Here is the input.
Amino acid sequence: MTSADATTDTSDPGPGGYAAARLRLLGEEPRSGPSRRSALARLTDDWLTGLFAGAARDTGVRGAALVAVGGYGRGELSPRSDLDLLLLHDGKAAPADLARLADRLWYPVWDLGLSLDHSVRTPAEARRTAADDLKVHLGLLDARPVAGDLGLLAGLRTAVLADWRNQAPARLPELHALCRERAEQCGELRFLLEPDLKEARGGLRDAAALRAVAASWLADAPREGLAEARRRLLDTRDALHLTTGRAGDRLALQEQAQVAARTGHPDADTLLREVYEAARTISYAADVTWREVGRVLRARAARPRLRGLLGPRGRGGAAGAAERAPLAEGVVEADGEAVLALAARPERDPVLPLRLGAAAAQAGLPVSLHAVRRLAAQARPLPEPWPAEARELLVTLLGAGEPTVAVWEALEAEGLVSRMLPEWERVRCRPQRNPVHTWTVDRHLVETAVRASAMTRRVGRPDLLLMAALLHDIGKGLPGDHSAAGEAVARRIALRTGFGAADADVLAALVRHHLLLVDTATRRDLDDPATVRTVADAVRTPGTLELLHALTEADALATGPAAWSAWRASLVADLVRRVAAVLGGAPDPGRPDPAPTAEEERLAVEALRTGEPVLALHPRPEEDAVGAELAVAVPDQPGVLPAVAGVLALHRLTVRAADLRSLELPGRLGEALVLRWRVAAGYGSLPEGSRLRADLVRALEGGLDVSAKLAEREAAYPRRRGVVPPPPRVAVVPEVSSLATVLEVRAPDAVGLLHRIGRALEDAGVRVRSAHVSTLGANAVDSLYVTSAEGKPLAPAEAASVAEAVARALA
Here is the structure.
């Protein structure tokens, strides 16, 4: 028997027949999407019809109907969807008979392991429940008869729809509040690495809410693309159910590759991008729809007051006309939106889309859906290069601050952004796998422009800053390093949009080097003259440095809370100050051997006098943690770096940066090692200095097995199921220091990582001059300046051998 036969065969209505037919249907590879969901709903209808007929006959109950509601009512059953069923009755059957009828229906469903949401009500009870419970009312809007007395449901549906339309002024604001609350709890689907396909904003719940708004006859959602977006999300959920074998709506990382294969996508990123596109369509439709609902409700509330003021006939019929205030040439404000003026001619004015966007963003107004769609259908393409007005309007739009986001997304939803900037299509809805990132690539670029708009008074060329913010990640999706790939793209866009050749070169340089300052400041030794000189050679001019500084901050702030802090800001500012001095003709501010401070000398003297480590702990508030500067002096001996790093890890201190120096005091025997650390307590408070010192003494004397303690700590943090981090990578970074060899370690952040690195370097017989630690999300990037025992850079072969040894220690 084929699956098509199974959907109509009622010869075996029992659980066994249904279960077998269901398995055959779900196992058919060619059938998927709406076809399979409808077939599964029909198969389930046939089974439940048989159950109902037998149960009604045996119990003698008449005047009852079995009703599908919710998703099942819409005929959309995913492989592991709940069955939402209502047993509707006329109230004449005996309660005991009705209970037996319900049991004969519900228990076979449970016996198959299917989830069931069920209720037993009369039509009057159903209406009363719907009046008290918005979710029940929403489910009844999709009610569909399965078996029994069809007249019962017909009357209920008519009454429920009438109630919904009559109560719409009160119920729709309640539904909108429910949608907002759900969005706050579950987030925005198109920006989540593990999105909830149903509950997150832009998901299936929002699509169902738009159907409910349409059923109210008060407003309707923009329909273009909406059905296709729902289908994509439902198809993805179907594949998720089949992949996991269980009900669920969260597209977890470990299942994305298998779901992508089931849905015919080449990889998980392509799947996510399509899911994000669908969510964007639903979110945009929701924004437009709820704005229209608000407008209609405000108009209804104002109408009685106007009639009272103007009399029954009004005054010349003008009372209801919306006022139109001019915003720009061809653009006016009407009813709280930016719309096209009556005299606007998009077919003759190619700059009009940018003029509409800039005017709306500056006024803080949403853009009319009708206006954007008219522009998409009628506006001529911009000439190349763009006229000066178009370029200036784009800069104005980008510089408007927070309102830019909604306006940009309205233009993007109708394809106007990709028409003006074809390169935008590559980054549109592109996911970013790094959990540090809050947004997709396209939204991150717009958010960076929003952040940069607050910094335009800090720079001499705010137009270049805003354009660089929009384009700095435009190379993502191209082969190779996105900064290098984006350089050529940015130059091409700059010339096309009307910037001169010199400005295009600056924009290309900003894109090429947009990570230079933060990477250098957090991973390189700023006291090494080669570090500052390398940045100065890349930046070349004070004006570019000024722009790059602002772009760096805007980029980090738009990335997410983990990407910027007071500590990173201070390091970048210090680097900018040093580079600016070099560009201004001053000597390199970095010194190979800066003079010891008075505190360092005091600590070194005390360490040599007592033969034990001494330390000083100076709290320094940080934006993201309780921070401190720690100075440690120890008589020169092996194992100092791993011992100190291990003790700090045991006390739950995160290392931000470390600097190690050997200090020989005149007139005294021996040398002291002086270590300066920037540390932070991610939670809780800083430990007492005396406890740190006591544990450090024990670690150096061998009384505290730091490695064993850290291993116990690490074992207490099990890795997430199914997520295997990439292996550590240790590389020798050439030509960044004339004083030392630089090793860069990229590894999953873990308890005691710097301790293990230090042990490996000690075993290799090299000295650590300084360490610069940067942690982004779950990944750490540590740069270590190492020398031979004689204090010189390592030979290339020796450096490669040391890098391999560290990699083995971390594997």
